[in-house]
Amino acid sequence: MHLFLLGVSHRTAPVDLREKLDFSSRDVGAAVEALAARSSAAESVVLSTCNRSEIYVAGTSTATARDEIVRFLSEYHDLPAESFTPHLFFFSETEVARHLFRVAAGLDSLVVGEPQILGQVKEAFRAAAERRCTGPVLRKLFDWSFNVGKRVRSETALGEGAVSISFAAVQLARKIFGRLHGRRVLVVGAGEISTLTAQHLRAHGVGEVAITSRTAAHAQALATEVAGHWVPWDGFATALANADIIVTATGSQRPIITRALVESALGRHRREPLFIIDVAVPRDVDAAVGEIEQVFLYNVDDLQTIVQENLSKRSGEIERAEAIVNEELARFLVWQRSRGAIQTVVALRERFDSIRRAELQRLESKLGGLPPETRALFDQVTRLIVEKLLLDPTEQLKGLPDEETQVAYTEAVNRLFRLRDDSGPGDPATSSDDVTPAQRRSR
Amino acid sequence: MNLLPLILYAAAGIAYAVHFARRDAGAGRTATTLLLLGVLSHTFVIGMQTMEVRHVPFANPSRAVATFVWLLTLSYLYLELTTDERSMGVFVLPIIIGLQLIPVLNPGVENKDPVLDSPWFWVHVASLLFAYASFGLAGVLGVTYVLQFKEIKKKHLGYFYMRLPSLQILDRMNSRATATGWTFLTVGLIVGVVWTLEARRLAPGNTNLQAMSLDDPKIFFAVLTWAVYSFAVLARKIMGWNGRRAAWLSALGFVIVLLTFLPLSYFVKTSHTF
Question: Is A443 helix (H, G, I), strand (E, B) or coil?
Answer without folding.
Answer: coil
